[in-house]
Amino acid sequence: MQKTEKARSFSGPFANLCKDYIQKNRALGYKYFIEETYLLQFDTFCIGKSQSGQPITKELFDQWTTKIVYESPTTHKMRFNILARFCKFLNESGRETYTGFYPIKREDSGRGFAPYIFNKDEIARFFQAADSVKASNVSPQTHIMLPVLFRMLYSCGLRLSEVLNLTVADVDFKKGVLAIRDSKFDKSRLIPMSESMLAISRVYANTMHSCSSDESYFFPAPDKGPFAESSIYTRFRRLLFEAGISHGGRGKGPRLHDFRHTFAVHSLRKLVADGRDIYVTLPILCGYLGHKSIGSTQYYLRLTAEVYPELTEAFEMHFGAVFPEVRK
Fold first, then answer.
1. Are 267 and 285 in contact (CB under 8 A)?
2. CB within 8 A of 148, min separation 6: which ones?
3. Are the beta carbons of 106 and 113 closer than 8 angstroms?
4. Phi and psi dihedrals of 129, rounded to 5?
């Protein structure tokens, strides 16, 4: 036992902060063994390069996260993300420090893009910015519509086209469901709303659609027709800026569709944390998202494990068959 404690003894400039961070995560139920090992290595690496009480600089961050020649891309990414999340913890604790972002290449994602997963703080800041949109003479009802539209994209995991094509008749307030008709792959489905989303939608409908017909668009453009996706994207980019969320430029994200990716990842994270049977819940999530096959939904299992490496052990312990070994 003494040998294990000695091997994991922090003595560098960030020793106490590392121990506080590890203790916090273990209090939440995570074992945090792998993360502890990498943070110990980082703390030891910083001896002579930084002093206690000083922030983690970009130079120090970059030195530690530079890929080692023999290191696999997966290990490098995990090591990078562990330090990035530690830096985020320091920032949230009032200790200003540098936080990096893993440079995912498009070809690495296997899908032509690297999904951006919003964290809870970013989601809250974005909605706060949406709630602050002011009325415009050109589009006098957009400030009422946007907060509801963006919340529906995230909380229901919908595609933008699905939200924009909703009619008043498609929103059933008695049952609390949305009717998605003839969407991608010509599939239709019913989407249950959360209690909070249902309440927000009801208030919105009472304001916007007290005299509307069933055929009216639920989120109408100023001319009463459907909003153009490009128009919503322009407003999305503006709100990202106001929320202080960096954007890599058109085609690099965050993209509007990343609300849907974020919904899937956050949902799976909660399912794992709650100890739910993934083999029962994954087909349900597949149907909820309107995927053609469960293979598309399984993609989010690996993405969830990458975004939240503290869940990797739980995934492998309970759902190891989802991550088959690659035979050489």
1. yes
2. 200, 201, 204, 219
3. yes
4. -65, -40
Write the CATH number for 198: 1.10.443.10
41-45, 217-221, 300-304: lowest mean pLDDT where? Answer: 300-304
- In angstroms, rounded to a whole number, what is the distance separating the alpha carbons of residues 52 and 13? 4
- Residue 110 pLDDT > 50: no
Residue range(s) defining the domain that contains residue 89: 2-103
d(C-alpha 162, C-alpha 106), whole Å: 26
- Per the domain annotation, does 247 fall within a domain? no
Confidence of residue 305 (pLDDT cuts 50, 70, 90): low
Strands 171-172 and 189-192: unpaired
Rounded distance between C-alpha atoms, residue 123 and residue 255, angstroms:
13
Q: How many Å apart are CA 88 and CA 141, to the nearest integer?
A: 37
Within this chain, do residues 267 and 156 fall inside the same structural domain, yes or no? Answer: no
221 and 291 both lie in a single domain: no
- Predicted local distance difference test score (pLDDT) of residue 243: 94
Counting the structural domains of the chain, the total is 3
What per-residue confidence (pLDDT) applies to 172? 95
> What is the value of pTM for the model shown?
0.60
Buried b (16+ CB within 10 A) or exposed e, 302-312: ebbbbbbbbbb
b/e map 106-134, b = 16+ CB within 10 Å: eeeeeeebbbbbbeeebbebbbebbeebe
Domain membership of residue 115 (yes or no) is no
Distance between CA atoms of residues 162 and 99, nearest Å: 35
Q: Where are the alpha helices (DSSP H) in the chain?
A: 2-7, 15-27, 33-45, 58-65, 73-92, 106-109, 120-131, 142-156, 160-164, 195-208, 229-242, 258-273, 278-289, 294-307, 312-319
- Domain shared by 220 and 283, yes or no: no
Question: Residue 171: phi, psi to the nearest 5?
Answer: -105, 105
Please provide residue 164's backbone torsions phi and psi, each rounded to the nearest 5 degrees. -70, -25
Residue carrying structure tokens 């006098």: 140
Highest mean pLDDT among 7-11, 81-85, 193-197: 193-197
